[in-house]
Each structure stands twice: as C-alpha cells, then as structure tokens.
Amino acid sequence: MNQHVEQQRNWRLRWISEPLLKLFRRITPRMSQTEREALDAGSVWWDGELFSGRPKWKKLRQLPAPHLSAEEQAFLDGPVDELCAMLDDWEITAEREDLPPEAWEFIKKNGFFSLIIPKSYGGLDYSALAHSATVMKISTRSITAAVTVMVPNSLGPAKLLLEYGTEEQKNYYLPRLAAGEEVPCFALTSPHAGSDAGAIPDYGIVCRQDFQGQEDVLGMRLTWEKRYITLGPVASLLGLAFKLYDPDQLLGEEKDLGITLALIPTDTEGVNIGRRHNPLNIPFMTGPNSGENVFVPLDWIIGGQARIGQGWRMLMECLADGRGISLPALSTGAGKLAVRGIGAYARVRTQFKLPIGRFEGVEEALARIGAYTYIMDATRTLTATALDRGEKPSVISAIVKYHLTERMRKVINDAMDILGGAGICLGPRNIIGRAYQGIPISITVEGANILTRSMIIFGQGAIRSHPYVFKEMEAIGEEDPDLSLEKFDRALFGHIRFVMINSLRTLFHALTSSLFIFVQGPGPTRRYYQHLTRMSAAFALLTDAALMTLGGALKRKEALSARLGDVLSHLYLASAVLKRFEDQGNPKSDLPLLHWACQHSLSEIQNAIDGLLHNFPNRPVAFLLRWMIFPLGRHFSPPSDKIGHRIAEQLLIPSNSRDRLTDGIFLPKAEHETIARLEDALAKVIRADHAERKLRQGLRDYKVDYHGLEGMLEAGLEQAIITEQDAELIREADAARTDVIKVDDFPNKPAK
Known about the structure:
The chain is of the alpha+beta class. The protein has five domains: 2-42 and 458-638, no CATH class; 59-64 and 317-453, Up-down Bundle (Butyryl-CoA Dehydrogenase, subunit A, domain 3); 70-178, Orthogonal Bundle (Butyryl-Coa Dehydrogenase, subunit A, domain 1), CATH 1.10.540.10; 184-301, Butyryl-CoA Dehydrogenase, subunit A, domain 2 (Beta Barrel), CATH 2.40.110; 674-740. Helix content is 59%, strand content 9%. The protein has 28 helices and nine strands. The protein has helices spanning 2-27, 33-40, 46-52, 57-61, 70-85, 89-96, 101-109, 128-139, 143-150, 157-164, 167-178, 311-348, 360-388, 394-419, 421-424, 433-444, 449-464, 469-477, 481-511, 523-550, 558-583, 591-614, 619-629, 641-652, 656-661, 674-698, 708-718, 724-740; strands at residues 184-187, 203-211, 214-230, 237-245, 256-265, 271-273, 286-297, 350-351, 354-355. The strands form two sheets. Strands 1, 2, 3, 4, 5, 6 and 7 form a seven-stranded mixed beta sheet that branches. Strands 8-9 form a two-stranded antiparallel sheet. Strand 2 and strand 3 form a beta hairpin. Helix 14 packs antiparallel against helix 16 (433-444) and helix 22 crosses helix 24. The longest helix has 38 residues, at 311-348.
C-alpha cells in the first residue's frame, strides 16, 4: 500500500508539479530585494485567520481585554493631564508657532520621549496600549504636542536602537534619549523618493579619513537631501537612511551594500539642519535636512558593521508602531473629541425652536461620528493588544493606519458640517478647526493613503498572510532543485484543496445565509460572527481567483487590489468591534453602535466584492464567482435610520455609552475652556428642558417680539404656566447657550 502511494506521489511530482514549477518560475515576476524584505518583515496574526476562509473566533475572543497597569494609569492621570493643562492650542498654533518652553521642558523631564525605553536605561517602558492612550489624550488638547510626543516613540532612533543597536550604542544613547538630553529625529523621505522609500538616492561611500583627532578612520562620506523630517529643526540626534557603496572594496568583494541606517549628532561638521516646513498651520517641528560628503565612522551605523545593508528590513519591522499605534491614536482622539464636543453642541444649539441634533440630516452626521469613533477605538485597542503580545502585524498596521485616518477625515468633516459657520472661524473657541487642517497630515505620513489602500494592504497581505502563496513563492526561490520541487508540491496541492473547500464553503454559506456556521458568542454578536465567516470564505476564494487568473498582472491592477484590500480591512474592523463589545461586558446601551458598525462593514464588504466582480477582467470567471458568492442576490444592507437615530440620541445627552465612547480624552475644568463651556451648557439645557417645554406649550400663540426671552418668561409667569424657579433655569440655559455659540473675532489688522 505504501509503495503504491509512493508511486502515485512520484508520478504527481514528475508529471504535474515539476512542469507547473517550471511554468511558475517563468511567469512569476522577479521580486526586488526591498519587496522581499518588506514581505519578510513583521508577523502574520489575525490577518492570517481572515485569509483562511474559516477564522477561529475563539482565538480572538480569548485575547485579554485591553488593560493599563496602575503605573500607566497614574501617568495618564498625572503627568499627561498636567501637560494637557499647560497647553493652549490657540497660543501654540496662532501666536508661538511652537510649544511653549515650559511644555518642552516638561515633556523631556517627565519621560514623554521614553515611553518605549526600558527602565534599565532610565525609560518608562510602557505598553503599546499606554503609548496609544498617551498620544490619544494629548491629541484631544493639541495635535502639535501629540506629534511631538509620538514620533520619538515610534519609528525613530530609540526603537531602532532597542531592536538592532550594539550594546555600546544602547548604553550611550538610550539613557540620554530617556532623560531628554537628546532630541531625536529620523530622516527617510527624499524629494525623489517619497512613497517609494526603497529608491532613496541618498548615499554613502566607504572610505578612510582622519576624524576628530584620529588618523585613518574607517568610515563613510554621506550625501543626502531629506524633507518632512519631524523634530528635525530641534533634533540633536539624526537617524539617517541611505544606500551604502564600497567602490574600493574596503569591506569585501561587494560594492553595492544596500540600504543602511546610521545615527549622526546634528552638530557634526557638514550637517545642514534647522529650517522648518509649515504643515497647514499645525506647527509641530518638521523640516528638511541635508549633507554633502559628511564623514562619519562606520561604528555610527545602527548595529555596527554587522547591520550594513539591513536598513530596509529594519525599517519595515519597526514601521508597525508608527502605523499601528501613533496615527490611529491621534485619529481616535479626534473622533472622541468630536463625539463629546459636537454632540453637546448639537443639543445646545437650536434652530426653528429645535435642537439641531434632532434634525434627521444632522442625526445622520452624528450617527457617523459616534459609530466611526466606536470602530476606531475598538481597532486601536485590539491592535495595541496584539503589539503588546509580541506580534508585529505589518499588514494589519497598514489597515489600521489607512482606515482610522480616513475615518478621522469623515468624522471631522461631519463635525464641521454641524458647526457650520462656527467651524470655519479659527480661534480659541473652535475645537475642530485645527483638527480639520491637520487631516491631510495624518493621511499623508507613514505612507500615503492612496498607495496604502491600492498597493500595500492586499498586495502585501495576499502573499504574506495567505496560507499557501508565500510557501509557493519560497519554493520557487529555493536553490536546491529537489527541495524546491518537494516544497512546491506540498504547497501546490495544499492550495488546490484549499480552493476547492473554500468554493464549496462559500456557495453553501451563501445558500443557507450562514445559518449552519457554528460560532459561540453572546446573542447580539453571534449572527455577525456567522456572516463574517461567510465573507472570509468568499474573500479567500476571490483572492485565489484573482491570483490564478491575473498572476503577476494583479500587482498592476491597483483598483482591483484596493477592493480586495477593502474586504480584508472591513473583516478586521468588524472583528475589532465584536471584540470590544464583549470585552466591555456586552452593554445593552452600546447595541446601536455594535449594529451600525457591523452592518456598515458587511455592506462595505458586499459593495467591494460587487465592484470587484463588475470590473474583473475574466468575465466567465466573474460570472461564476458572482453565482457562488451571491446566488440569492446581495443580502447586506447599510445601517438603518432607526439605528442612526439611537446613536445620535446617545451623543446628545450625558450617558454611560457617551462616557465609554469618550473615555481617555482630556476634559479641562477651567470655565473659559470650550469643552468645559459645552459640558456646562449641556447640563443646564437639559435641566431646563421640562420648563421650556411647559412654556412653549402654554404659550402656543405667543409671538416673540423685541422683548425677546424675558418678555416670554414674563408672560409665562403672569399666566402661572411656569414658576420663578423654572424661569431661572431657562435664563441660565439661555445664557450658557449664548456663550457656547459665540464665535471668536479679532481686531482688524491695518493693510501693510
């Protein structure tokens, strides 16, 4: 029997696998070294489950709920609140164009630059969740301060030193960075290499030269031109990415040594640094820097000579923090601020004798603000939890960066629509204006969103997270012919079984409306788990169909790749929402948020698949796929107006749901603060609501004249419709409302 099986296997190897291996080698496009390193970087996490067609939901649900340590919570309640209290965003953005000196000093002395540095080097050594919570809270007070804090703790010298630095480099630089004695920046982006950072033209030439009193030092002459470098204008330590060449072969036979990273004190002779950009009136320190033939020793390379040529891989492995922590935290902070501030404003502000939040058009915008913020916070905390467990989910970090910054864009746009004229007039009272100006910054940095969606999310995920594609590509690249064939055979026939099973699974789940998928979960979530499993199977089938029919051309079909990326992304966003709902104890008042978020994601998945099939080049295959995925037609609808109404109501009144949704923001107490004014006005308006309703109903035929509110109150008192206590409540509410809706104005500047 075993001999027969072996003969069958040998026949399969010779007549099926070997010819297909030769064919795949011919048609598979060559992968560049930078592409290979990007794929090798990071780890596969929940994205692998979503590609499987049958996610193991138990694995997700068993993850611990996000939780800050007592020390981390004390930092948020202490130094972070103190920093926020000393910040005046209008002063920072309109007058100083910088943080005040006392804020800079406070940030340095209290370890804000050392969130990720171990205690053994003098750092705080906080979790990714605490890092995220810190950036998020500061962002609700000042984007300038948030960016200042987040950059040294994400893709910068500290992170690179921790992961790859020599012991000597760590022992020297990390304590100085932790104490704020060094201000770091990292220079990657060049004028001619933005999103294509692997094509940087900046270079170094290995050579020997006298340096700082030492003779014949082995080093390199660096020439570079960089821009958009955050903290660059005030940095004392410059991290630099460049391509290293050894034309005289001083280090060996190789002349092109690849992308390399080095640390350079900014006072080194020849370093040009200090000028500033003006990023849309959000005046965080960012600017260009350059150097020409700047000599530095080789031991300034991060990790020493052993790390020469590994720079791109080092960057890719560390990029998850910037994409997965900092920008999502900033985006979520903007959402929470909009929920708290704009929700209150929509209840306090009236038009046509009605709070503007009661108009259905405004309700739609409020519902999006609330639901998108719920999605952002759920995704932020789930991703931070993964990072704290040692995962480096490169594909998911790209999903989180793209979708949370895009949701920030939509939330702030909705907030501006609700504020109307008050939103477009900048001043101390406007809490949204600077966030609106800052949207393009988040959209652009850490990878432009257009390219992240159309090239990275699915382009990287299809290879890295698919259960078989990466194995097949590894087999193709294997140098040993026998081992290559053996690996390819296993991967190929595993892949064939995978496609067949997913095809049957997709059709069966579609015909049965996912009812026969066994998933544990509380009542409100179970149906969503079932539908997401069905869509995961459909996604896996679509992925294989696209790869098999388009092959390497799929890389250039960016619109199709983007739609596949949208499916993967919404599978992850919905997963995060379900996890958050259960982690918080399945609160009944959060059900509208759960339903809106999950129904929105399922509808978006359906739309992305429909768009993909409508534009799929192979029409017979597209017809077959549509029949298998939607045999009974399109099933998922967007969230209903009824659900949106319930979400909007939660934003208009103080509630546990509103508090959960805005947990972690900075709430100033001083009476002159805009948020404090809004909170005060909201409470007074709600307190006076019953008295105002009595007055309006009792004076139905009363016409307000030049006596205004006082005339109406006097009529109500004369007719005993309201009491003097009622009248006082109404006066207090009206005064608070009038104060809230005021718009800043300034003296007219004489013409120059």
